[in-house]
Specification:
heterodimer, A: alpha/beta, six-stranded mixed beta sheet, 9 helices, 10 strands, 40% helix, globular, disordered C terminus, B: mainly alpha, two-stranded antiparallel ribbon, 11 helices, 83% helix
């Protein structure tokens, strides 16, 4: 039985269907990458797996039980790092460790958090605040925060999306190394086909919305360890790349007009802002 | 690279030099003060004969200013001693306001039920003048000091309440998601996420509240006649020593300005610390 399975998941925002009939499974120790277009519900999908948002229809099964909320053995690594800016890198990770291991003493918490940060090569920046770290370093802290909790599955929501190409490839290698060392289970979403081929065991392509759905999983045939420099001469790489791209391109954005319209309904935070503004005026 | 390294220090040095002789920012405010001083002098010579001239004000106030902490009698003390009484009373009323206002703001920010229930009554209570609250305070507490504290607290807490509420409502969803993923308890969520994320808003509220508290103290002392800068002002009006009224006005303004600046520094520090 697989560790995680999504069964006929559907989700819509208002009248707009975002995800339709999504099915995928992740086995213990596996690295699965979902590759798809931007703004087509990848983050929504991850939030549902994490338990932050309930699906409209279908079930997320984790370890044989349906997911109803967040748990400490399914940890989400956010696209925008979401570190708490008032805490140092170490304190950010410590907070997570203390939650995941309530019986730890203060010293044990610190030791575990430090070890996790050293694992992502941030041993020298323990006491720096997120504001004093580069984007790549922040994502490392965020990764360390997830790893330190020792979850059954790590959910990565476009973790490298905001980084420059060099930092990105560096962190991809890091992810692979950590996954091989820790034997942890990872589910990642990304919009980068090459990134998926470098890191993942299986790739699941996500069609463009509205009403995006997942295609058949594609097993990555490039053997590990995958050398980035030799990749271009590897026929397996070209084969995998072609298969994924073929699906994505033949299931690309169909109705661009509808798509543009729907984007406005995505940012549904306007009312809160106006309310806050009027209150602020009153306060002043 | 070398040329850039060579030009950079000299350029920044040039900036620093320019800042040191930033004439407009010294001369223009001085010009402003001078204008008011001249208008004051002209007024006291022409249409407002009972208005003491600047020089007369200085001469009559010299003793109060040069010996600012003297105590010659209940209502005959150095100007800074009076100011000290007032600041102490304001501090007590202000902390009472923060003590009530901050948790109230958190409740309003966290619960729409609470907001819907209490926001209208707050909007009604907010514009009520201290002059209207003070008599009620005297009725409730009989003595002047508690009623002054009551008035300061109830008038000055609203900016704290409302800004804290706005801050809590504006805590980024990302941080709340972190709280959910980490399964933080209500208590930890409050102290590790909500309060730090709200602090900059709270401090804006604190600063506005302090400004109001200082406004209220003068009014409260004028009505109750308590020793303090406001009480002294009113006494000197009754004693027809108009120079001292002007002295009090200037001191009240300066103290209010200094308090505001201090809070602004604190506000900046907090915001800087948290970003």
């Amino acid at each position: 039985m697989s560790l995680l399975s999504l069964q006929n998941i559907s989700k819509s925002y208002g009248a707009r269907p975002v995800l339709c009939d999504v099915n995928v499974t992740v086995d213990e120790g596996e690295f699965v990458a979902i590759v798809g277009y931007s703004g087509m519900g990848k983050t929504t999908l991850m939030n549902m797996v994490a338990g932050l948002v309930p699906p409209d229809a279908g079930t997320v099964m984790f370890d044989g039980k349906p997911v109803t909320g967040t748990t400490l053995d399914r940890v989400l690594i956010f696209q925008n790092y979401s570190l708490l800016p008032w805490f140092s890198a170490l304190r950010n990770v410590e907070l997570a460790v203390a939650q995941a291991f309530p019986k730890f003493t203060r010293a044990q918490v610190t030791a575990q958090a430090t070890a996790a940060l050293e694992k992502v090569k941030l041993g020298h920046a323990l006491n720096r605040k997120p504001g004093e770290l580069s984007g790549g370093m922040r994502q490392r802290v965020s990764l360390a925060r997830g790893l330190a909790m020792n979850p059954r599955i790590l959910l990565l929501d476009e973790p490298l999306g905001a980084l420059d190409a060099l930092t990105r490839s560096e962190l991809q290698d890091e992810l692979v190394r950590i996954q091989q060392e820790e034997k942890c289970t990872l589910l990642m979403v990304t919009n980068d086909v090459d990134e998926a081929i470098i890191v993942a065991d299986r790739i699941v392509p996500l069609s463009a919305g509205p009403g995006a759905t997942l295609g058949d999983p594609i097993a990555v045939t490039v053997p590990r360890p995958r050398d980035r420099r030799a990749l271009n001469n590897d026929p397996a790489y070209h084969h995998d790349r072609k298969t994924v791209l073929h699906y994505l391109l033949s299931h690309g954005p169909r109705d661009l007009k509808l798509r543009g319209k729907s984007h406005t309904s995505f940012t549904a935070q306007k009312p809160v802002e106006t309310k806050a503004k009027s209150l602020e005026e009153v306060a002043a | 690279m070398t040329t850039a390294a060579e030009t950079l220090p000299s350029r920044s040095a040039g900036c620093a030099w320019k800042l040191r002789i930033d004439w407009p920012s010294i001369l223009l405010p001085a010009l402003g003060f001078l204008t008011v001083l001249i208008l004051w002098q002209i007024s006291s010579l022409t249409w407002a004969k009972s208005l003491p001239s600047p020089l007369k004000t200085w001469e009559s106030s010299r003793e109060l200013i040069m010996d600012p902490f003297a105590k010659r009698g209940e209502m005959d003390q150095g100007i800074l001693r009076f100011t000290g009484y007032s600041i102490w009373l304001v501090a007590k009323g202000y902390f009472l306001a923060l003590l009530i206002g901050t948790p109230l703001g958190f409740l309003l920010g966290l619960s729409t039920f609470f907001t819907k229930t209490f926001d209208p009554i707050i909007q009604v209570l907010k514009p009520i003048s201290p002059l209207a609250w003070l008599p009620l305070g005297l009725v409730l507490f009989q003595r002047t000091e508690p009623s002054a504290l009551f008035t300061i607290a109830i008038c000055s807490m609203w900016p704290t309440v409302l800004n804290t509420a706005i801050g809590v409502r504006n805590v980024p969803q990302d941080y709340l998601n972190v709280g959910k993923v980490l399964k933080l308890s209500k208590f930890k969520l409050l102290f590790k996420i909500l309060i730090p994320a709200t602090l900059p808003y709270m401090f804006t509220g604190f600063r506005l509240s302090l400004g109001i508290a200082w406004l209220v103290i003068v009014a409260a002392e004028m009505l109750t006649g308590a020793p303090g800068i406001g009480g002294f002002l009113w006494q000197e009006y009754n004693a027809l020593i108009y120079e001292h009224i002007i002295l009090c006005i200037i001191v009240i303004g300066l103290v209010g300005y200094i308090l505001d600046r201090l809070m602004m520094v604190a506000e900046k520090q907090v915001t800087h610390l948290l970003s």
